[in-house]
Design goal:
The structure is a single chain. The protein has four domains: 7-292, Rossmann fold, CATH 3.40.50.300; 466-568, no CATH class; 593-943, TIM Barrel, CATH 3.20.20; 947-1196, Alpha-Beta Complex (Spore Coat Polysaccharide Biosynthesis Protein SpsA, Chain A). By secondary structure, it is of the alpha/beta class. Helix 1 packs across helix 13, helix 16 runs antiparallel to helix 17 and helix 29 (881-901) runs parallel beside helix 30. Strands 5, 6, 7, 8, 11, 12, 13, 14, 16, 17 and 19 form an eleven-stranded mixed β-sheet that branches. Helices cover 49% and strands 11% of the residues. The protein is built from 40 helices and 30 strands.
């Protein structure tokens, strides 16, 4: 404990000084200021983060000298500390030597220093003052630690013949604690105690001395009165007057530098701040008015006695452990520094080596460029041959759809012969390998057509249910022919002509149908579509068609095939699929999501020597993928890659593309399968490249595939190619092998622990002992503890007996689903595999009860290992982006609920997998669904993103401030907020109408800012991303009705990424609806003139819903909605129009029925990139029909 004077002595000393000063003040009230001593030191005392630096600089601007060497500014104090570096270092040393520190709130006990050490510090302080300040007559010294031993400094200064004046700077302790918390992470309570120690010691040391007290808040608010008080109280003559220094001080003092503010009322009202702190701060405020106020001194004495009586006891229980921890951290930092320095030397040596190699590489590159030029010339020749081959194969594709699976062998032999010829011509030309692989797939595509029949069979089933569909007659005719296979060819041709005449499509399109169908031999062989073309068509057919399993009259599937060809005309570009989802242009910020999505990642997409030996030269996973063919109707095979192509993971840019793609769609990172066999690594190059290229900015973890490597691809023990051994020494060796990954900053951690997954933990002889060894080795290596996760495979459930922390699902392992072999049409008579129900599999995982251990949920986009086990693979029927999205949402909901009940639950969901192409499980884009699975992932995860607080605030503010000012309104759904500036002029053309804007729930706050900046009276709201623009519109429609709006315009930020003309469609619609102020007035006048006009669409956008391609995919929803709208008579009949693009002017009353549907976000489908067939599309189709049903008319704007 310090030997402090008693409260009575301090009180008497203060009173004596006051009595001594009072006569002088009375005698010299109007006299000049006291002449300062030859040298004067202004000692600035106060707590850290209390404004001492700011005041020190201001006193310097008035002429008080600063030390020669000051601490440099940093991110914690950009305006500078203005304190001597040497004093700071010495004070730290003096505190530490006495077993204390700057943040030690115990009294500083100088007696813990030996007498010779005290003398050493006194002499050092005197030396430093002379060195730093020289002979300056007036100087300022500030270093917050001085408050702990201010009396020693004052004694030294006085011994040097220097007069000492004190300035105590105080600040609201709430603000100080907040600043400390931001700088160093200390708690509010801890910061308050440190504040209390500093202000008590500073006040005690300066009591009875010439001093002034000011607050940092007062300096920032108005510095001049504070400086005038300091000047008069301390009787100082500044070398520079306040007026002369005003501009410099104004430029330096800024409220922008006051990052933490707290009002007196907040301190008084706080229930977490000790009474000692509140009383002490109130006393300091009193002393700002009178530095010697007696009651304030008594208060501070009382607090000091109470604080000193307990601080040592409690401090002794806290600080020893804290110092030990700090020492351990310092030691670790020192080790890191040594390693860093060593690594820097090694890096420099490597750099020099690389520079030498670079010169060699440049020479090699030139040679390679010459070779590449020659190779490209050869490649161009072969591309021409390939294009010719593609054209031939495309012409045969429809024929292949009608061929028996057994007959494919003969066709495949012919194509194989052609392939071998091409291969012989391209030996040694590696640049053509991918093109050759794709060419091989053209023959496989012949079988795909057969599988596509299934989806159109479903379409026919819906058409048969309608009693008034205009082409039901031709369909019944087809049925008649199928039941009576010996019917005449003339009857068949009659059916074709009648079907063509009665199809609800324009004549030019019917002609296009005929021309397209005549391309196929099967149609030409059956006969011409008209008498006039009969001779030419038959004559033009030179091909001989054998018996086909789907020939006309052979099975009901041919009915679907015929209609499929009809519907394909003018509907989609050649070679694309209705299920295809293009790449999204959206930029979604997933940083606010409480969940992470990690995808398992297979590295077997590059050749290795072992695979060359086991499976053949150049083997990669693509070798398996390209062999698959459909085994049953509706079987999606082969899975062909999209944007990324048949990539090679030896190219690091491929991994960069994968990471960027994953991140943009909400996938946090990858879980790499790791193959390690007793010191031997396989397929390690991708992970090694990932570690070397730290710019690939996604998280990752490892899953040890610790089973034998076998020839059967299924984990069985027969035909073992590389055996897995387990021993104590292997345990340590394995952990050492993956240490570089565990130490990577990108490695996935849970509660600070590196996540390590083991695929078959039950194969470890003593898994608990292995887990213990791994943890011990990881801690010794500085990684920290591990979070060990056992995959639920081959019977593993509870991870705790294994010594692991959690389990992770690994579908389809441990899942349940019904077999569907007997319910589907299998086209391969030798098929030995199993077909299961995907949706049942997903449901089985969702229905599992929460186990008594930590379980990480995993979903799978699909699963089909037909590529690895031809003819005997296991697959899950019904997998598509929509059913996957449903499973993913269920897994996320379960994880969120578990987090609410158990904060130790890992906030992550896994996906199996990112790129398991040979198992049909991949998020990567393919040629059928495109980016559908990634689109589904992003749109499920965005629902869990916490709304931007700034967005919430602006939306709530806009709704409170909104006032109806017009009888007309614009309803804008701003999904793509980047388009707002493009639409702003159109919105302004509406004049003084009200603007109601809906945003997506995950929109940034800046989007709301831009809207309100342009339209301050706009009313904002936000919604989940369901139902496109229709769901938000239906939420606002009741508001339009209740507020009595007579007219409104519905627009939205339409992009239509599946169409090349999407931007043009939006611009055209906006121009037609809001093209100019005069144009808008004309539209308003049309509504005023015709009181029964209910809806007006942009010119050319009212389309006929009766046309087949505009209702076929929406019939299910249309026929469910019509009864709810009171329009039963129209079920199955769609003789109406609709505003394509869903942008139009309308009377809210005309669409009242839509509001009565009371549809919410959950009524709409998951957003997976659908281009048609959803509830939102069906409502779009019915908007005009509803207005017409209510007795209103509909029309279009004038062309512009």
């Amino acid at each position: 404990m310090n030997e402090n004077p008693s409260p009575e002595q301090l009180r008497d000393a203060s009173a004596q000084l006051v009595d001594q000063l009072a006569p002088k003040k009375r005698a010299k009230a109007n006299s000049a200021k006291i002449k300062p001593a030859k040298r004067t030191c202004i000692m600035v005392l106060g707590m850290h983060r209390s404004g001492t630096s700011a005041l020190t600089r201001v006193l310097n601007l008035l002429g008080a000298a600063l030390p020669e060497q000051v601490i440099a500014s940093d991110e914690n104090n950009a305006n500078g500390y203005w304190e001597p570096t040497s004093i700071n270092t010495l004070n730290e040393q003096m505190l530490a030597e006495a077993g204390s520190s700057w943040d030690d709130w115990r009294p500083y006990d100088v007696t813990k220093l030996l007498e010779e050490r005290r003398e050493f510090y006194r002499s050092e302080i005197a030396r430093i003052i002379g060195q730093e300040y020289g002979a300056a007559p007036l100087f300022v010294i500030k270093e917050p630690r001085i408050a702990r031993f201010a009396e020693m400094y004052a004694d030294i200064l006085q011994s040097l013949g220097i007069d000492v004046r004190y300035v105590l700077v105080s600040r609201n302790p709430l603000a100080v604690a907040a600043s400390l918390e931001k700088r160093g992470g200390s708690s509010q309570g801890f910061g308050m105690l440190v504040w209390l120690r500093h202000v008590l010691d500073a006040e005690q040391a300066s009591r009875g001395k010439r001093r002034a007290l000011v607050s940092y808040e007062a300096i920032v608010e108005n510095w001049r009165p504070c400086l005038q008080k300091i000047t008069s109280t301390l009787s100082l003559d500044w070398p520079r007057s306040l007026d002369d220094a005003q501009s410099d001080i104004d430029a330096f003092i800024s409220s922008a530098n006051q990052h933490h503010r707290a009002r007196q009322g907040e301190l008084d009202a706080s229930t977490t701040v000790a009474g000692w702190v509140k009383d002490s701060y109130a006393a300091l405020q009193s002393m700002e008015r009178d530095p010697y106020e007696q009651q304030a001194s008594k208060t501070l004495d009382r607090v000091r006695r109470a604080f000193d009586s307990v601080s040592t006891t409690f401090g002794d229980a806290v600080y020893p452990d804290l110092y030990a921890l700090n020492a351990a951290v310092a030691a670790a930092d020192s080790r890191i520094q040594r390693v860093t320095e060593k690594s820097a030397a090694e890096i420099e040596a490597t750099k020099q080596t690389l520079e030498r190699q670079g010169i060699e590489f440049q020479s090699r590159e030139k040679r390679l460029q010459d070779q590449l030029k020659k190779a490209r010339g050869l490649a161009n020749k072969h591309r021409k041959k390939e294009r010719h081959l593609v054209e031939m194969l495309e012409q045969e594709r429809a024929v292949a759809a009608l061929a028996k699976v057994g007959q494919l062998a003969e066709m495949r032999d012919d194509l194989t012969s052609m392939r071998r010829t091409l291969e012989a011509a391209t030996v040694g030309n590696a640049t053509l390998s991918i093109a050759q692989t794709e060419r091989q797939q053209l023959e496989i595509a012949l079988a795909r057509s057969q599988a596509e029949v299934a989806s159109y069979t479903n379409a026919i089933r819906e058409m048969r249910n309608s009693t008034s569909w205009r082409i039901s007659g031709p369909i019944r005719a087809i049925k008649y022919l199928l039941i009576n296979p010996i019917g005449s060819v003339r009857a068949l041709l009659g059916f074709g002509r009648r079907a063509a005449r009665r199809l609800p499509i324009p004549l030019h399109m019917k002609h296009s149908v005929k021309m397209r169908l005549l391309r196929y031999d099967v149609v030409r062989r059956a006969g011409s579509l008209s008498r006039e073309e009969a001779t030419g068509s038959v004559a033009s057919s030179s091909a001989t068609i054998g018996a086909a399993p789907l020939a006309l009259g052979g099975s009901p599937s041919v009915e679907a095939e015929y209609i499929r060809q009809v519907l394909a005309i003018a509907k989609r570009p050649a070679g694309t699929d209705l299920d295809y989802v293009p790449r999204s242009e959206e930029v979604i910020d997933f940083a606010r999501s409480p969940l992470k999505v990690m995808a398992f990642y297979l590295p077997q997409f590059h050749p290795i020597a072992e695979n060359d030996e086991w499976w053949g030269k150049g083997f990669t996973e693509w070798t398996n993928v390209t062999k698959a063919v459909p085994q049953y109707i509706g079987h999606y095979q082969p899975h062909m890659p999209g944007e990324l192509g048949f990539y090679d993971l030896r190219i690091v840019d491929v991994m960069r593309q994968q990471a960027a793609l994953a991140k943009s769609y909400g996938v946090t990172g990858f879980c790499f399968h790791h193959y390690w066999f007793g010191g031997k690594r396989l397929l390690e190059k991708p992970v090694r490249q990932f570690l070397e290229n730290t710019d690939i900015d996604v998280e990752f973890c490892l899953c040890w595939a610790n089973e034998n490597w076998t020839r059967r691809w299924d984990g069985q023990e027969q035909d073992v190619l590389m055996a897995q051994q387990h021993s104590p020494s292997d345990d340590v060796a394995f952990l050492d092998d993956i240490l570089p990954a565990l130490q990577d900053r990108r490695y996935l951690r849970h509660e600070g622990r590196a996540v390590l997954i083991v695929y078959r933990a039950s194969l470890l002889p003593d898994s608990a002992a292995t887990a213990a060894r791994w943890r011990e080795r990881a801690k010794a290596a500085g990684v920290g503890d591990l979070y060990l996760v056992a995959a639920q495979t081959f019977g593993i459930l509870d991870p705790r007996p294994l010594g692991f922390d959690a389990a992770i699902e690994f579908p389809p392992h441990m899942g349940m689903a019904s077999g569907l072999n007997g319910q589907l049409k299998i086209v391969n008579p030798d098929f030995r595999g199993q077909i299961y129900d995907y949706e049942e599999l997903a449901a089985s995982y969702a229905q599992k009860k929460r186990p008594p251990y930590q379980l990480i949920k995993t979903v799978s986009p699909s699963w089909d290992n037909e590529a690895r086990k031809p003819g005997s693979g296991h697959s899950f029927y019904g997998a598509n982006p929509a059913s996957y999205a449903k499973w993913l949402r269920s897994a996320c909901d379960i994880t969120i609920n578990n987090l609410a009940n158990d904060l130790t639950q890992p906030p992550v969901v896994f996906v199996n997998a990112w790129n398991e192409w040979a198992e049909g499980a991949h998020l990567e884009p393919d040629r059928k669904f495109g980016y559908g699975y990634l689109h589904a992932t992003a749109n499920v995860m965005r629902d869990f993103i916490a709304p931007d607080p700034h967005l919430i605030g602006l939306v709530e503010k806009s709704q409170r401030a909104f006032r109806k000012r017009s009888s007309s309104a614009i309803v804008l759904h701003l999904h793509y907020d980047d388009l707002f500036e493009d639409m702003r002029e159109n919105l302004s053309n509406a004049g003084e109408v009200d603007l109601l804007v809906t945003l997506r729930r995950d929109a940034p706050g800046t989007a709301a800012e831009r809207v309100l900046s342009a339209f301050p009276n706009a009313r904002l709201s936000y919604f989940r991303n369901r139902g496109r623009d229709m769901q938000p519109f239906l939420q606002l429609l009741p508001l339009l009705l209740s507020e009595g709006y007579e007219l409104a315009c519905k627009v939205h930020s339409k992009k239509s990424p599946h169409r090349r003309d999407g931007n043009a469609l939006r611009s055209s619609a906006l121009s037609s609806l809001l093209g100019s102020r005069e144009h808008v007035k004309q539209i308003a006048r049309r509504f005023e003139k015709d009181r029964k006009l209910g809806l007006m669409a942009p010119a050319g956008t009212l389309l006929d819903l009766g046309e087949l391609e505009r209702n076929i995919l929406n019939r299910s929803w249309l026929d469910r909605l019509l009864p709810r709208l009171g329009m039963q008579a129209q079920i199955g009949r769609y003789d109406t129009v609709f505003p394509a693009g869903s942008m139009f002017w309308f009377r809210p009353k005309a669409l009242r029925l839509l509001a009565d549907l009371s549809l919410g976000p959950d009524d709409f489908e998951e957003e997976v990139g659908q281009i048609d067939g959803t509830l939102a599309h069906a409502i779009e189709r019915l908007t005009a029909a509803v207005a017409l049903h209510e007795g209103y008319s509909v029309g279009e704007t004038d062309s512009r």
